[in-house]
Structure formats: structure tokens, C-alpha cells
Design brief:
Blueprint lengths: L2 E5 L4 H12 L3 E6 L18 E5 L14 E4 L6 H6 L1 H22 L2 E7 L26 H21 L3 E6 L2 E2 L10 H11 L3 E4 L5 E3 L1 E2 H13 L5 E4 L4 E3 H12 L5 E4 L14 H7 L7 H13 L3 H6 L12
Bound molecules: uridine-5'-diphosphate.
The site of uridine-5'-diphosphate has 15 residues, from helix 5 and strand 8.
């Protein structure tokens, strides 16, 4: 049986990846320090004999006994609100954490896939974003702690690949959504759905002309799975190219939830990328992958998930105000 270590196992993507690898017949070692992760996301796995969980911060030395075939490094805060709250941990898990896991991969002769992000492209001047684009990142802005940690992560991963011959994979993840997103992480989908469910107006930042392209979690997990098992070491974009403005998206949510909420406009957060759409030519050619779930289907499943949460969860999700971080 293949053994895989998944860091960030209690997070949104990490927990779905644990499910996927368990379903594919792997023995999964989940690791998380639970700063932004939630054990409820993996509660159903604790009774499975092929799942183990370690409460550990991967920014510190990581020890795993026994053989290890694969490592997926998905531990990291991943929402702008979290970077503002825990900037140093964000930098550490992307840099020190990645270094520790690369060292572990080398020691165990394991293949490692690291979770990078469309944030490496910053506020992009090239559209849609291909993997060749170097990006437009403000190193010292609020998002810099995440963007630069992820850019360093890619560099050190390629250095281990080239210098030590380690088998490495890099996925650049574009906005992904689905059940188990944290309701209070400030990201646009849980924010809008939480607002609709609490009967509040939907807060669109700026004029809402900025665009995003949202990928359903099952498609994202399938892309990551294929990349891990591929022979390709350069970065690969995984995301859904179907792009929408945030204002149009707010209107879609109002229709989906059948509520009569209005849209209210709030200041645009600093360095908020104005447009984002993955070019997925590489993923199509190398992995034979493209997304299958359209936004209407994926959002329906996601909305039903959030609707099933308790009143208390909803109260905890109240909206955070970004206004002190404005520049535009
Ligand atoms: N956004 C918004 N209202 C909200 C939360 C987010 O208009 O209540 C916007 C945000 O300014 C950004 C987009 O939605 O342009 C996506 O934000 P998110 O935090 O989900 O992720 P990002 O892609 O910016 O990392």
C-alpha cells in the first residue's frame, strides 16, 4: 500500500485530498497545526484504519516513521483575511515548512507536490495567465507574505529538483470553492453565501469589475491527483477558465439563494488583483485534464452545504471589514 503525507489535512483542499487518496487505496498520514484547519473536515476519516492524523506545525522539523511514497504540501493560510491576521506563520509555512518537507522527501526518497497559487502572478499584466508569465507582485503589500512565500516555495522546490534530483511537482491553484470552505475566512464565496443566509446585503469590494474564475473542488482535486502521478516537474495551472466579474457573481448568488438582498459597495482591498483567469493549455496537454463541473452545478452543491450549517456557525461567519487596507 502506498503511503502519502498530506499537510494542511484539516483544511478545505487538504481534507478533500485526504478523501481522494483514501478512496484510491492509499494509506494517508494527515498533518495540520489547526490554526486555520478544522478537525470537523476530517472527523469522518478517524475511524478509517488507513488514516492517521498528526497535530504538528510543519514550520518545525517534521518526522515521519516508516516509508513514504508521496508528500502533498497543502499547509498554509490561503485567504487575504488570514494573511492579515497571521502574516508570519504564512511566510514560515511556505518557506521553512516547504524546506522541511523537501528534506523529508529527500530522506524518504518520496515524490513531493507543493501547492502553489495564482497569487504568484500578483495583479497580472498578462491575461489569461500562462505558466510562462513571471507575475506582478508587490513584495511589501498585505498579500506579499503569501505571494512571496509561494514564490520562494517554487524556487526552493525547483532547486531540490535540479540539485538533488528530487521528484517534485508544482500546482498553481486558481480560486477553488466547494463544501468545507471556512465560512469566516473572508473569501468571496463563503462571504456572499453567509451574507445571503443571514439576510444581510452582499458586500462587493470596489466597483465589482474585478474578475475571478472559480473552480469546483472535485475538479481541482482531480487535476492535483493527475499532476502528482505525471512525470512533469514544471508548474501547472489548475483552475476553471470561466471568468466572471465579482458584481455579476454577486447577482448570481442573489438568484441562487432566492433572497432579495441588495449589493452594497465597499472599498477595494489593497493589491486586489483586477483580473484572473487560468490558461489551462498545459494541464490539458500534459494531464488530459479540464474542469467538468460548471459554476451553476458547483454553486448549488456549495450553497446546500452552507445551508446545512448551524445558526452558531453562521453567526461566527460575520463579515470582516477590509476598509483599513484600501489603496485604490
Ligand atoms: N470580494 C468582495 N466581497 C467580499 C469578499 C471578496 O467583493 O465580501 C472580492 C475581493 O475583493 C476579490 C474577489 O472578491 O476581488 C475574490 O476575493 P477572495 O478573497 O475570494 O480571493 P482572492 O482571489 O482575492 O484571493
Amino acid at each position: 500500500m502506498k503511503r502519502i503525507l498530506i499537510t494542511g489535512a484539516a483544511g478545505f483542499l487538504g481534507s478533500h485530498l485526504c478523501d481522494k487518496f483514501i478512496a484510491e487505496g492509499y494509506h494517508v498520514l494527515g498533518m495540520d497545526n489547526l490554526i486555520t484547519g478544522d478537525l470537523n473536515n476530517i472527523d469522518h476519516l478517524f475511524k478509517n484504519k488507513n488514516f492517521e492524523f498528526y497535530h504538528h506545525d510543519v514550520s518545525k522539523f517534521v518526522h515521519v516513521s516508516g516509508k513514504l511514497d508521496y508528500i502533498l504540501h497543502f499547509a498554509s493560510p490561503a485567504s487575504p483575511i488570514d494573511y492579515l491576521k497571521i502574516p508570519i506563520q504564512t511566510l514560515k509555512v511556505g518557506s521553512l515548512g516547504t524546506h522541511n518537507l523537501l528534506g523529508l522527501a529527500k530522506e524518504k526518497n518520496a515524490r513531493i507536490l507543493i501547492a502553489s497559487t495564482s497569487e504568484v502572478y500578483g495583479d497580472p499584466l498578462v491575461h489569461p495567465q500562462t505558466e510562462e508569465y513571471y507575475g506582478n507582485v508587490n513584495t511589501i503589500g498585505p498579500r506579499g507574505v503569501y505571494d512571496e512565500a509561494k514564490r520562494f516555495q517554487e524556487s526552493i522546490t525547483m532547486a531540490y529538483h535540479r540539485f538533488h534530483g528530487l521528484e517534485t511537482r508544482i500546482v498553481r491553484i486558481f480560486n477553488t470553492y466547494g463544501p468545507r470552505m471556512r465560512l469566516n475566512d473572508g473569501r468571496v464565496i463563503p462571504a456572499f453565501i453567509g451574507q445571503a443566509l443571514r439576510g444581510e446585503d452582499l458586500t462587493v469590494f470596489g466597483e465589482g469589475n474585478q474578475t475571478r474564475s472559480f473552480c469546483y473542488v472535485d475538479d481541482q482535486v482531480d487535476g492535483i491527483y493527475r499532476l502528482l502521478l505525471s512525470e512533469y516537474a514544471e508548474p501547472v495551472n489548475i483552475g476553471n477558465p470561466h471568468e466572471i466579474t465579482i458584481k455579476d457573481f454577486a447577482e448570481e448568488i442573489i438568484k441562487l439563494t432566492g433572497t432579495d438582498q441588495k449589493i452594497v459597495y465597499k472599498p477595494l482591498p489593497k493589491d486586489d488583483p483586477m483580473q484572473r483567469q487560468p490558461d489551462i493549455t498545459r494541464a490539458k496537454e500534459i494531464l488530459g485534464w479540464e474542469p467538468k463541473v460548471n459554476r451553476a452545478e458547483g454553486m448549488k452543491i456549495t450553497y446546500d452545504y452552507f445551508k446545512g450549517l448551524s445558526e452558531e456557525d453562521l453567526r461566527k461567519s460575520e463579515h470582516k471589514d477590509f476598509s483599513k487596507h484600501i489603496v485604490r
